[in-house]
Amino acid sequence: MTPGKIYMDNCVTTHLAPEALEAMLPYFSDKFWFPGSFISTGEASSAALKEFRATLAGTLNAAAEEVHFTSGGTLANNIAIKGLALANSSAGKHAIVSVVDYPDLLTNAAWLEKQGFEVSYLEPDAEGLVSADKLKAAIRPDTMLFLTTIVNHVVGTIQPLAEYKQVLAEAGHRIFWHADAGQAYGKMPLDVKDLGVDTLSVSAHKIHGPQGIGALWVKKGVKLAQLIHGVNRVDAFQTGGLSIALIAGFAKAAEITFANLDATTSRLRELSNHLLQRLEATIPEIELNGPRGEGRACHNINVSIAYIEGEAITMMLDLQGITVATGSACASQGLKANYVLMAMGKNHVQSHGSMKFTLSRYNTKEDIDLAVERLAEITASLRQRSPLYQSIHPQEK
After folding, report:
1. Least confident window among 2-6, 23-27, 73-77
2. What are phi and psi for residue 90, nearest 5 degrees?
């Protein structure tokens, strides 16, 4: 058995693109210098960094000076949320987030409460969508911050960004808006000039770039409080050293992904549609979690398989070299029911029986067909051992 031979857990991290690795190598060896002025080594790194920043900015239709490199998406989220809150709390100490947002946002919301903020938590509908009407109803005169995850990390639901933009524009006062784009970046167009957000976080290793590097877009004129203090070598918000090699890999991965984004997303949509069709045709009593079609991200399929535990399926597939996830990738360390699925109205059985497949351009239909075939065999075997299943299907004993 080769671990991860068929890898379908791309929500967590992705295979490093060979081109990204190649782009990184010179900065691990000959070009190891930090950016600087007056001397050739520093000037060369400064020029490269300027080019990498411009590449990332182009993928978001942003100005290069608005892009800030960080050591990952989580730090980008922290810098944005805490920075916005601390810099602008005089305008109000009320924030809005949803109960199905990414853990980064929810843990920062808890931090805001400890700083004296009041936080309103919006509930989703049965497909994981948080309506703009609920946002509108939650806004108060002292609301100064709204947080959202563009693509839900568990079920792939795309939130109604254009409707959020309209609600915030009509609020009657300034409300800052931070968006986590970790699962959206490279999976759908993101034009920051059109979205209406003030800050937006992305991560390299979700698009076949290296682990350990991300970026934060900050709209020109938006003020963030300084959270990390020290010498400014690469970026003013995350002071100190950042790996130029990792940034080079990030830029190359973005360049490849966005060279033809329509083709990238169409390919992922074709694969996920094929996966869902094979799952529903092959395994009885299976239920799609989240919306069907264009309302969900192109790479995400989340299903609940009745009568059996997702953890058991995940481990049995892993023994055959097939990597998938059960529930939330960021909550899988324990056996608790997934908080997103529960908020969507699923019960504990549906939550514990959930399986999440997140695909990448390195997956094939042959991978999918083999994974579904093995999953069907495992499902049948586990159901034969399930007292609940046998009580409902006694003829199959």
Report:
1. 2-6
2. -65, -20
Predicted pLDDT of residue 228: 81
Return the CATH number of the domain spanning residue range 6-14+261-385: 3.90.1150.10
Determine the average pLDDT of the residues in 31-42: 80
Question: How many other C-beta atoms can be found within 10 angstroms of the C-beta atom of residue 119?
Answer: 19
Angstrom distances, CA of residue 204 to CA of 18, 52, 90: 14, 13, 34
Per-domain residue ranges of the chain: 6-14+261-385, 18-258
Q: Which residues contact 242 (CB under 8 A, 6 or more apart)?
A: 69, 70, 71, 213, 233, 234, 235
What would the two tokens of residue 14 be?
């992705």
Judge whether residue 29 has pLDDT over 60. yes
The pair of three-digit structure tokens given for residue 334, joined into one six-digit string: 């324990």
Say whether 330 is catalytic. yes
CATH class for the domain made up of 18-258:
alpha beta
Pick the catalytic residue from 12, 171, 330, 331. 330
Q: How many CB atoms are closer than 10 A to CB 191?
A: 10
Distance of CA 192 to the CA centre of its chain: 17
